[in-house]
Automatic annotation (TrEMBL):
Assigned keywords, A-Z: FAD, Flavoprotein, Oxidoreductase
SUPFAM superfamilies noted in UniProt: CO dehydrogenase flavoprotein C-terminal domain-like, FAD-binding/transporter-associated domain-like
Protein name: Xanthine dehydrogenase family protein subunit M
InterPro entries according to UniProt: CO_DH_flav_C, CO_DH_flav_C_dom_sf, Diverse_Substr_Oxidored, FAD-bd_PCMH, FAD-bd_PCMH-like_sf, FAD-bd_PCMH_sub1, FAD-bd_PCMH_sub2, Mopterin_DH_FAD-bd
Entries under Pfam families matching the protein: CO_deh_flav_C, FAD_binding_5
Database matches in Gene3D superfamilies: 3.30.465.10, CO dehydrogenase flavoprotein, C-terminal domain (3.30.390.50), Uridine Diphospho-n-acetylenolpyruvylglucosamine Reductase, domain 2 (3.30.43.10)
Keyword Oxidoreductase: yes
Domain FAD-binding PCMH-type residues, every copy: 1-223
Organism: Salinicola endophyticus
Amino acid sequence: MRAFDYARAENPAAAIAAHGSDGQAAFLAGGTTLLDLVKLDVMQPRKVVDINGVALDRIESLDDGRLRIGAMVTNTALARDKRVVEDYAVLSQALLAGASTQLRNKATTGGNLMQRVRCPYFRDGVSACNKREPGSGCAAIGGVNRSVHAVLGTSDSCIAAHPSDMCVAMAAIGAKVQVEGPEGRREIDFADFHLLPGDTPQREHALAPGELITHVVLDAPLAGSRSAYLKLRDRQSYQFALASSAVIVQMDGNTVREARVALGGVGTKPWRAPEVEAALKGEPASEQRFADAAKLAFEHAVAYSHNAYKIPLGQQAIVRNLTDLTIA
């Protein structure tokens, strides 16, 4: 492990000041991603700013019906919060589908948003990887790309799938990410927070240098809606999604009044599927209707040598989830 400076902050302003904006520092919360990647020498911060003393661990109901989640709220606390369980079941289920109990007890909301990809070529420190070393190439495109590589939002520079379950649920719900930095406070729409790889896969988030996530504010829940998270994986525990779906549906009898659909495991970012939502709105619930709509999410999918199966599997994740929520 390389040597680095360490600082501990007690409030956002002190954390931002200690971090600076030169790109050589990292904020430390739960450390479930950062410490792994530092040990692997994939991330090489010159300074680590510990924010565990910053009071950002509250979940607050806002007057307009939204829910405000502090960046330091653990995945366990968020998944078990009564308001989340009752109003955002899809989020609670997504969190509980991720990692292990021990990791959920440490992992934080802000850290989960910043979770980095699980591509082995990114993490091995020696393979060609444009995300780790811009301009070096992407070994995954011609290599083994079965499980943690995407078919949506890929580019010639990177095909790594985004790994978070929580973020897929938040993409379906809709949210704002509140941040503070050297230039003050601002909000980023959740849909714009994670970036497609394009020609710059090393830039994964819309954060400016030195900015700190302070809160995530979830949109108010759809009245009378049902929601669920379905995760398809090689085994039932401690495994990343091959394909997953977060679905929120509001029904009027047997007719879909409103639907929100997001996908995980198949995209280079948490993947909202507005074309599926539009195809379902105002239509009767049926497996055939769901299957027709699910195909629309993958019209522009690009399969690689080992992951073509993700296209029908991703469609299946949508159909099964919708069926369980509306017909089964």
